[in-house]
Design goal:
This protein is mainly alpha-helical. Helices cover 46% and strands 0% of the residues. The chain has four helices and no strands. Helix 2 packs across helix 3 and helix 3 packs across helix 4.
Length: 95
């Protein structure tokens, strides 16, 4: 049996470590008054439940409005996390 002498042309390419590229971040656009109102309702519901509501717990008008305004519920939830005062950590003043 003869030893293989020819190598696959991309074999060395696959072994090389690929450079890690930073994922471009999407610009944060200012919120419209309609989006702010929807996020205020979402924040009120979140405060009442003590956690982010599930999809089934959202009223249909809010669920459809958030999806239309932000593109998806996940995007709306991420935006709510970004601006939510309840999620930010503030140091308590000592008395």
């Amino acid at each position: 049996m003869q030893k293989k002498t020819q190598r696959h042309p991309f074999r060395d390419w696959a072994k090389r470590p690929q450079p890690r590229t930073a994922r471009p971040s999407q610009p944060v656009l200012p919120l419209t008054p309609e989006q702010q109102a929807q996020l205020a309702v979402l924040e009120a519901l979140r405060t009442r439940l003590g956690r982010m509501p599930l999809r089934e717990e959202l009223p249909p008008y809010l669920r459809m409005g958030l999806a239309a305004s932000f593109g998806s519920l996940g995007s709306a939830f991420r935006q709510a996390d970004r601006i939510s005062p309840s999620r930010s950590v503030t140091p308590e003043a000592k008395s």
